[in-house]
Amino acid sequence: MKLAFQLAYKNLIGAGLRTWLNVGVLAFCFIIIVFFNGIYSGWNNQAKSDSIKWQYGFGELRHPEFNPLDPFSIADGHGVVPEVNDAVPIFLQQASIFPDNRMISILMKGIPVDQQLLEIPSFKLEDNSGELQGLIGMKMAKASGLEEGDEVIIRWRDSNGAFDARPIKITHIFDTSVPTVDAGQVWISLKKLQELTGYENHASYLVADKNFNSESYNSGWTWVSQQGLLQSITDLINSKRAGGAFMYIFLLGIALLALFDTQVLAIFRRQREIGTYIALGMTRWQVLKIFTIEGAMYSLFASIIGTLVGFPLMYFLNHYGIPMPMGDQNLGVAMTERMYPSYGLALFIGTILLLVVSATLVSFLPSRKIVHMDPVDALKGKMQ
């Protein structure tokens, strides 16, 4: 085996430019595969982390008639808040605001002023002036044209089905990467919303703290775990990852095709060398092993060069991030203005194994012809 590696190494170095062209193509594939998978992994981690901090907490306890994907369930999907200490109640009501003589349909969301579980700055709603105050996100502010300190008329239906309206003052505009707590929403004090609508002590769902024990709780409300809440993010990013895999397969296919052609040409041009090996006492399988190891070495060289070239670039992007277009931030999933890729050891090792296995297999296929060669014909340079 040692002799086979030594001969394969000398043959590759002796091939000169042909070797480094194949290595360069494989190294490019290595960098592309690691780069894009790092982006998807970083997006996945970032989206989940921000969603937990801003929206999901450690799970949700929902009213049995409330479905966040069904806007028609908001009207009846609420009830008296269960006696739970380790959770933050959130109350949803449909409403409309009228900025600059326009009507915009929104969700009016009530949240406890003193909560500290979510990143929503609800403490900004603490005011004893008696005026109705609200928080909005930057996307909502851009869509409505509202600024901090502005007043706008907000209209809703109370528990009797009658319309009511009051001016609301925008006390703070927060910046978040989670569009589901920003777009089309106005946050106000939970007690104030319960008072305005006439639904005393009502909530649509509760966001659980880490100390919440879902197994010991039984009130008829629906428990949705943190993993279940994050599943939609995982599914979306996995679909993006699957779409990107077509590009990897295409690039890797081109590189492997070049390697396959190189091995076919090498066997054709090196017939006398193959015959000499056999005449000196090597078995045909030993000679086949040399050519197969040569193909594997292409991928090993490519992994080394790809790491040396790609590491500085990936380190830079991991530290400074990648600017994302504003249009991509409206996908309905958490996405910041800068994406920070995540490169793990498993990603590098998995990509290297993919290259090594693929290159070894592609090199073995044309090398099988060596097994059927006649050593005398090979010495004469004749193909069977």
Features:
13 strands; 9 helices; 2 domains; 384 residues; two-stranded antiparallel sheet; alpha+beta; 9-stranded mixed beta sheet; 18% strand; 49% helix
Structural notes for this entry:
The chain is α+β, with helices and mostly antiparallel strands and 384 residues long. It has two domains: 2-52 and 231-380, no CATH class; 59-211, no CATH class. 49% of the residues lie in helices and 18% in strands. It has nine helices and 13 strands. It has helices at residues 2-15, 17-56, 138-144, 190-197, 226-269, 271-279, 284-320, 345-367, 375-380; strands spanning 59-62, 79-80, 87-97, 104-111, 132-137, 151-157, 163-174, 185-189, 202-203, 205-208, 222-225, 322-323, 338-339. Strands 1, 3, 4, 5, 6, 7, 8, 10 and 11 form a nine-stranded mixed beta sheet that branches. Strands 2-9 form a two-stranded antiparallel ribbon. It has a two-stranded antiparallel ribbon with strand order 12-13. A hairpin with a 5-residue loop joins strand 6 and strand 7. Helix 7 runs antiparallel to helix 8 (345-367). The radius of gyration is 32 Å and the shape is elongated. The mean pLDDT is 83.
